[in-house]
Amino acid sequence: MCQNESSCVACCGTLNLRLRAEQLRDLLSERTSQCPEAGRADHASLVAYRSAREEIEASLERYDATVYVCPFVGWIEEGRAGCLIHPLRTGRANSQNASFYGTTICQSYDCRAKEKEAIKEADKEEAERHGSKGWQTMALHIAGGDALVYTRIIGDAMFYRLVEAIGDTASVFETAPALMERLIRLRLCQDCGPTSFEIPSHSKPTVDDLIPVLFREEDRPTAARMAAEAIDAVGRSSTM
After folding, report:
1. Shortest CA distance to 188 belongs to which of 225, 219, 230?
2. Superkingdom, according to UniProt (predicted)?
């Protein structure tokens, strides 16, 4: 899920930086050019680079001060964002130990989107029931090849909660694709730094709970109306 038709770096904190899209792209270019051997250098050199970049980027404003921003996210090829020290690039199994979290955490972390992709690989029919195809296809369509927009959509754990609050995810994207596209585009207007990290919760938030969290104040009535229409569409399809 991280690297397919597009690329996603939501788990690495990149979108936590309060920067415009062009500034983020420039930042990734700067990291890529400064990272020793584009991430393939020895461990000590990579650790030194990380320390230097953390100091440089410390002054950049963040949406959430508790979310770490990894300086090893860069351009692994033109238009494709990713981990500069991923083992598939370096040929070394533990190369991500140069990062803050280390190889074990980097390799074992699963976000909601990645979990759905794993389901799809294991059982395509079950994946369709979980809606992974619709979610990814919609994200790719809206992003139009822009890795950072794709990251913004596919890694937005809070928006995915809204989809689940509307109904079964497969049914939502099948019966109300136009409404879901409009909701996603409306969400993109919100000045925020969405992340794939999720806060464990024993309760399921409702649509009414999530609308104020996800959308600008002026967009909330429109978002609530579209969500209600999507719920109605899913309900009608289930009775047919």
Report:
1. 219
2. Bacteria
Sign of the Cα pseudo-torsion (73, 76, 81, 87, in order) = negative
pLDDT digit string, tens, across residues 67-122:
899 999 999 988 889 899 999 899 999 999 999 989 988 887 766 665 555 544 44
Spatial contact of 197 and 152, defined as CB atoms under 8 Å apart: no
Question: What are 7's strand-pairing partners?
Answer: 3
H-assigned helices in 58-123: 87-90, 103-108, 112-122
Q: Return the SS3 of 41.
A: coil
169 burial via Cβ count (<10 Å: 0-12, 13-18, 19+): buried
- DSSP per-residue string spanning 142-179: HHTT-HHHHHHHHT-HHHHHHHHHHS-HHHHHHH-HHH
Assign 80 to helix, strand or coil. Answer: strand
Round to whole Å and give the CA distance between 31 and 49: 9
Q: What is the rounded CA–CA span in Å between residue 35 and residue 239? A: 56
Q: Name residues whose C-beta falls within 8 Å of residue 116's C-beta, 6 or more positions apart in sequence.
A: 1, 127, 130, 131, 132, 135, 136
